[in-house]
Specification:
The protein is built from 10 helices and 12 strands. The protein is α/β, with parallel strands linked by helices and about 290 residues long. A hairpin with a 6-residue loop joins strand 1 and strand 2.
């Protein structure tokens, strides 16, 4: 009995077809059929009923299938364990990040991780925080840098990466510019520029408005914080920005604190309920030790 034979059994059982199973494991159809028949001769019992249009497991095949899967999982686990112990972690990680994210801390984290594990491929994708969280929950993403408002959900774990106050940013000549702080009610009906719905900044702002009974008049949405700041500098409205972004545009914008304070948080999130690959586990471990907030 060979591992490849067990792999072929699993493929045929899941595809219910020898031709599709052969394509899945990259062998010829006669080759996979011959190996399965050889295993059946060794076991002394047929594993598949080939009499119909689709291939079905026999009672013996159904009994063997869980053990075949377990053997393949054990073999993969042994290979990964050896890789980890010898420092040869391989594989890939899928990371999502909020659209328009340009945090230096993320680049530094990934650079340090790549220097330590050059064999791991890193795939980055951008989306809204809502869809990133869903990707983490469904397994489409190993980790995500997403905006979080309020208490984090119980089905995800996280490390805080950024936690800062949101401000209202206006041109230096704007009537509100002399103010150091403004209440949320001051934004009622005022043209507002913000990130789109589903982003962490926008979710935090919308939640704060709802608590204060304010209905913001969002006239412009941009996917990048830098564009939100530029639109405000042109006098098109009050920009809702993290304080660090507003401070970087101090030559053209005045940052005004919001009262009560509204904070936006970016967390690196993952699902602790899923079995992570060694590559993803290595990244989580790296972040845990690299971030002061972790």
């Amino acid at each position: 009995m060979e591992l490849r034979q067990l792999e072929y059994v699993v493929a045929v059982a899941e595809e219910a077809n020898f031709t599709r199973a052969a394509a899945r494991v990259n062998v010829t159809q006669p080759g996979i059929s011959a190996q399965v028949r050889q295993l059946e001769r060794e076991l002394g019992q047929p594993l598949f009923d080939r009499s119909g249009r689709s291939v079905r497991l026999t009672a013996v095949g159904a009994a063997v299938l869980p053990y075949a899967r377990a053997a393949l999982d054990a073999a993969r686990g042994a290979r990964l364990a050896v890789d980890q112990l010898t420092g040869l972690v391989r594989g890939s990680v899928a990371i999502g990040m909020v659209s328009g994210c340009s945090l230096p801390v993320l680049a530094r984290l990934l650079a340090g991780f790549h220097a330590r594990y050059p064999g791991i491929r890193i795939g980055l994708s951008e989306d809204t925080s809502e869809r990133l969280m869903e990707g983490v929950r469904t397994g489409g993403l190993d980790l995500a840098l997403a905006g979080v408002t309020g208490e984090r959900a119980g089905d995800v774990a996280s490390f805080p990466v950024v936690d800062e106050a949101l401000v209202a940013a206006v041109p230096l000549s704007h009537p509100l510019a002399p103010r150091r702080t403004i209440g949320m009610a001051a934004l009622d009906g005022v043209p507002v520029i913000s990130l789109p719905g589903g982003t962490g900044v926008r979710s935090a702002f919308d939640a704060a408005c709802a608590r204060q009974g304010v209905r913001p008049n969002v006239v412009f949405e941009a996917s990048a914080l830098s564009m939100v700041a530029q639109l405000a500098a042109e006098g098109l409205g009050v920009a809702i920005l993290p304080s660090s972004v507003a401070d970087a545009s101090a030559e053209t914008l005045r940052a005004i604190g919001l009262s009560p304070e509204v904070r936006s948080r970016l967390d690196l999130v993952w699902s602790p309920g899923r079995s992570h690959s060694p590559a993803a586990g290595a990244l989580i471990h790296h972040v845990a030790h690299a971030l002061p907030a972790a």
